[in-house]
Amino acid sequence: MTLKTYEEELHSFAQPNKAVITHLDLNIDVNFDTHIISGTATYNIANNGASEIILDSKYLDIEAITADGKKTTFTLGSFDENLGQPLAISIKETTQKIAIKYRTTAKTEALQWLNAQQTADKTNPFLFTQGQAILTRTWIPIQDSPQIRITYNATVKVPKNLMAVMSAQNPQEKTADGMYHFKMAQPIPAYLIALAIGDIEYKAISSRTGVYAEKSMIDKVQAEFSDMEKMVVAAENLYGAYSWEQFDVIVLPPSFPFGGMENPRLTFATPTVIAGDKSLTSLVAHELAHSWSGNLVTNATWNDFWLNEGFTVYFEIRIMEALYGKERANMLALIGRQDLDEELESLKETPNDTKLKLDLKGRSPDDGMNSIAYDKGYLFLRTLEEKVGREKMDAFLKSYFKKNAFSTTNTEDFITYLNTNLLEKNSITFNTDEWIYQPGVPSNAAIIQSNAFSTVEKTLQSFVDTNGIDTNITKQWTPQEWVHFIRNFQEDIKIEQLQQLDDTFNFTGSTNSYISMVWYEQSILNNYHGNQVDSKISEFLNTVGRRWYVTTLFKAFKRADRLNEALLIYKKARPNYHAVTANTIDGLLGFGV
Ligand SMILES: [Zn+2]
Fold first, then answer.
1. Alpha carbon distances (Å) from 61 to 40, 77, 103
2. Cβ distance 163 to 200 under 8 Å?
3. Per-residue pLDDT for 3 more than 90?
4. Which CATH class for the 297-437 domain?
5. d(CA 369, ligand 1 centre) in Å
6. How far, in Å, from the CA of 285 to the mean position of ligand 1?
């Protein structure tokens, strides 16, 4: 056992230095009638002479446990709302394997069971898991800490007409008997174990990239993501070989709570990025970048979440620049900067939450999953790049990923590595500590400029002044430019002006989910009710479960003092949301408490 030890793990009961899991054999049956997963999780363990091994468990029924084939005793400790319960299993010094017979319950937070109506094809049910940050323990008893990596094999039994896929070597066709076997040979933390089951198909994009989706979506998805192989090549050119052999994406039903989840070998993605014009595919670049930052080099604790996300946004924008040029990359960076400024404003009462290194003691890791980790993390790295130059920055990042591959690192180890291998080596001084340990954004932050966005701002100002808009300028605009235009409406924009813009550009009828989201936000904030936008908003919130979109719109209702309308929609929409989204909106609207 050569586990690095970091500061206290706040979000797992495991004591890996006493006894730690090293490999999982999962054997489960997935029952779509009862909405229960049942089976056995068998672990190889490494024991430092401990008389018990402690796993994490939340909302699971633990039925029986054996140690090396013989029945053993176990206790479930007291329940914590965030963490669940410690599952302490008696073992001997010589114990090599433990096998836990268990079943999930209706309360599981990782699983979302969808009925046929909630899918694209509307003929079969669907199931997907979401493990990050600490939800894997709600469908598998496990040591659920990002510091603990395991390999896994799985046997999954599903109804015959459905296909199962995991964050592992995957089938590309359905089996006749509904039995699927999986192998993940590279060690990963528990939060990256993932499973999706549905009436899905596979289409290859290259020999190592491809897509899974329902029948009615598969061709659109393949066309939308046809640059995937180019993205992998661009990423490898930047920071070294792709370590996971295969890179596939599965497009899930719209209730998936995130844009994407970087499950290794198989990214899970929201269908809201299928825009028909590849305009929202930076999401794929983002999840691909996680194959290095996050999956290969993992944050040691959720307090270090910015190491996963800040690096990934930086890497994502570099991939997008390599494929589509500097202007598109700068637009993405500037949108992120705007998101960051909004986040800083919303966190002004709790400035400690605007530090890159967080303190989540006694809190859910979800509290740290906001624009600070992503966009302040990005801005730090971008500023560092401008200070040291791109060549040195890239050599440094490449060596950082190589040195820490298949391992974890924390903020302090990163700073040491940065000082030794980049700053001191080149006699460069940089205010790293201020960026990481102080709230807000330091004054030396890189200034991000986009010529395209300057034109957008001028066009908007001219419209506000004259009520006229030159459609020769706007006709070439990308969705990002439209988003920038809409988000920058001033507070005193008139209803007649919103109506005029909607009539001219059909924002209410947009088929681009990102434009829809920001337009609906403005409609709510400004009490605009034209072109039946209210029913569109209600329909959107009842279909899409992507937390970022849903939260933005419910926040707008709250800011506009339209809480009653929000609650009316939410009561109906809530059953369509994954627990991750529902928990956030419950808190935002004070629902059910
Ligand atoms: Zn990410």
1. 12, 13, 5
2. yes
3. no
4. mainly alpha
5. 10
6. 10
Distance 42 CA to ligand 1 centre (A): 30
Residues 6+ apart with CB under 8 A from 103: 36, 37, 38, 39, 60, 61, 63
- Secondary-structure breakdown of the chain: helix, strand, coil percentages, each rounded to the nearest 5: 40, 20, 35
What digits encode the pLDDT tens for the residues 488-542? 999 889 999 999 999 999 999 999 999 999 999 999 999 999 999 999 999 999 9
324 is catalytic: no
Top-level CATH class of 1-109+124-192? mainly beta
DSSP-assigned states of every residue in 284-353: HHHHHHTTTBTTTEEESSGGGHHHHHHHHHHHHHHHHHHHH-HHHHHHHHHHHHHHHHHHHHHTTT-GGG
Residues 6+ apart with CB under 8 A from 443: none
Q: Which residues make up the environment of ion ligand 1, defined by Cβ < 5 Å?
A: 309, 312
- Per-domain residue ranges of the chain: 1-109+124-192, 297-437, 452-589
For the segment 62-113, what is each residue's pLDDT rounded down to a tens digit? Answer: 999 999 999 999 999 999 999 999 999 999 999 999 999 999 999 999 999 9
Q: For position 1, what pLDDT does the model report?
A: 46
Question: In the predicted model, what is the mean pLDDT of residues 375-394?
Answer: 98
Whole-prediction pTM: 0.97
* Residue in 152, 212, 374, 520 annotated catalytic: 374
Q: Are strands 126-129 and 195-198 parallel, antiparallel or unpaired?
A: antiparallel
Percent of the chain predicted with pLDDT > 70: 99
Query: Residue 462 C-alpha to ligand 1 middle, in angstroms?
Result: 37
Confidence of residue 5 (pLDDT cuts 50, 70, 90): low
Per-residue pLDDT at 8: 73
Name the CATH code of domain 452-589 (choices 1.25.40.320, 3.80.30.20, 1.10.10.200, 3.40.50.300): 1.25.40.320
3-state class (DSSP) for residue 38: strand
Alpha-carbon distance of 262 to 525, in angstroms, equals: 33
Distance of CA 473 to the CA centre of its chain: 35
> 195: which 2 tokens?
């499973």
CA torsion, ordered 259, 407, 310, 382, to nearest 10 deg: -140
Q: Please give the pLDDT value at position 6.
A: 61
Q: How confident is the model over 177-189, as pLDDT tens digits? A: 999 999 999 999 9
CA atoms within 13 A on the CB side of 89: 36
What separation in Å is there between the alpha carbon of 109 and the centre of ligand 1?
Answer: 20
Q: Is 327 a catalytic residue?
A: no
Q: What is the rounded distance in angstroms from the CA atom of residue 246 to the CA atom of residue 259? A: 21
Among 376, 264, 251, 358, CA closest to 313: 376
Q: Which of 287, 321, 385, 481 is catalytic?
A: 287
- Express each pLDDT in 124-179 by its tens digit: 999 999 999 999 999 999 999 999 999 999 999 999 999 999 999 999 999 999 99
Share of the chain above pLDDT 90, in %: 98
Place of tokens 């209702």: 557
What separation in Å is there between the alpha carbon of 308 and the centre of ligand 1? 7
Note whether 209 and 285 are within 8 A (CB).
no
Round to whole Å and give the CA distance between 526 and 520: 10
Q: DSSP letters along 554-583, please?
A: HHHHHHTT-HHHHHHHHHHHGGGS-HHHHH
